Amino acid sequence: MNATETHAPHKRERRKQDRPGELLEAALDLFVEKGFAATRVEEVAARAGVSKGTLFLYFPSKEELFKAVIMENVARPVAEGISEAESFEGSSGDLLEWMMLEWWRRYGATKASGISKLMMSEAGNFPALADFFRNTVIEPSHALVRFILQRGIDRGEFRAMDIHAVIHSVISPLIFLVMEKHALGACGQSPHALVPETFLSNHADLLVRGLKPETP
């Protein structure tokens, strides 16, 4: 037996290591398809090919499972964006457009974006989960946009502004795209459907033009 064979994990060990990811993937599929309330942990376990008892070894409740899905599929891309924005070398206008396009590529264009629609439709019934989503996703997202806007002001690229209000002007089209994708977009492709990347680039251009300092 060679060294590779000696140290390679057995199939059963690899399967055990993969289970949390497989459970999260199955849970994401079902939460997006059915919503939080209608999804049962038995269904998640069955789709992942394990027993309900095995699921509870990793996630003690449906709420904890949902939180883990949010952390992996929604909060993580936001955290990555914050880290990368801090080392961005271009203009603040370019950074704003980059952020919007990367948001679509890493989140909006993926099935995980259905979580945003789920939260809008079910948050009122699950206030604790709504608070969790606000703290782990919404607030960090706002912090990222706030960083970009303040960067532009500090560098003289953007005029002074009500940053809180402008944050919502930046984020609103992102939410619109997700809602359109999972509402009318789910009914079939329309000949008038938006091209997300084009829409976001155009919106970023409008924002940057409006945020430039006024010339004397």
TrEMBL record:
<keyword id="KW-0804">Transcription</keyword>
<dbReference type="InterPro" id="IPR036271">
    <property type="entry name" value="Tet_transcr_reg_TetR-rel_C_sf"/>
</dbReference>
<dbReference type="Pfam" id="PF00440">
    <property type="entry name" value="TetR_N"/>
</dbReference>
<dbReference type="InterPro" id="IPR009057">
    <property type="entry name" value="Homeodomain-like_sf"/>
</dbReference>
<keyword id="KW-0805">Transcription regulation</keyword>
<feature type="DNA-binding region" description="H-T-H motif">
    <location>
        <begin position="40"/>
        <end position="59"/>
    </location>
</feature>
<protein>
    <submittedName>
        <fullName>TetR/AcrR family transcriptional regulator</fullName>
    </submittedName>
</protein>
<feature type="domain" description="HTH tetR-type">
    <location>
        <begin position="17"/>
        <end position="77"/>
    </location>
</feature>
<keyword id="KW-0238">DNA-binding</keyword>
<dbReference type="InterPro" id="IPR011075">
    <property type="entry name" value="TetR_C"/>
</dbReference>
<dbReference type="Pfam" id="PF16859">
    <property type="entry name" value="TetR_C_11"/>
</dbReference>
<dbReference type="InterPro" id="IPR050109">
    <property type="entry name" value="HTH-type_TetR-like_transc_reg"/>
</dbReference>
<dbReference type="InterPro" id="IPR001647">
    <property type="entry name" value="HTH_TetR"/>
</dbReference>
